[in-house]
Amino acid sequence: REVLASADVVIFNFGIWYNWDPTVDTQRPRYSRLSEEHTTKQIEECITQGIRAPKLAGNCTRRHCLTSPTSALERIQGAFWRRNCAGSLGKLAYASDLKRFAVVLRKVAAERRWRARKLIWRASTPQHYSGPSGMFPLKRSNTWPGAGACIPVRNDSLAADRNAVADSMLHSLLRPGGPPYMTRWSTWDHDLGYHDEHPRGADCSHFCLHSTATWNWVRLLLACLVGRDCGR
Question: So which domain of life are we looking at (predicted)?
């Protein structure tokens, strides 16, 4: 609420911590069948393994922020969320968290007290790991592959599976007329050609470090804000 009440533009994204293999997990989660609390057990697993506390999160404790989406929305200013148990965060967890986010955003919107003139859903960037989808379904016995393991996207449909789930779960929020209405912003087409750009040899597969790709995002965001082009 504090962010929406004080910011002119708010950008939302769930990041790349949810991974699965679309060739194995082929089911499309259905919004009506998902519980808002479906991932509570998985979130608690993450907490026991150690979660990096969000910066600038005020009095929001790890457990309370992660299990209370309303509190997280209130205190997310500048926060960076890192869940160290990616093995338990697959497609169903992603869909369930998206539903919880949508429910909370509608509740806050109903209060009609925010000043934000534009809400943006930031579509995920393509990942470039060596699997068919570019995603890396992490098991606890594995480690993330290095930047050198990145290759061009080989299957557009599989690579887009994460965004397909988000578009489905957030359909009512992304539809003009809302409420609330979020503009979908994507840099997908732009990012496809930068899979081999790894500053200092240390970047991950989805542009964690500043590079030509991320600086171009600023230009693309400005174009989206003035209504010229928000990508596909």
Answer: Eukaryota
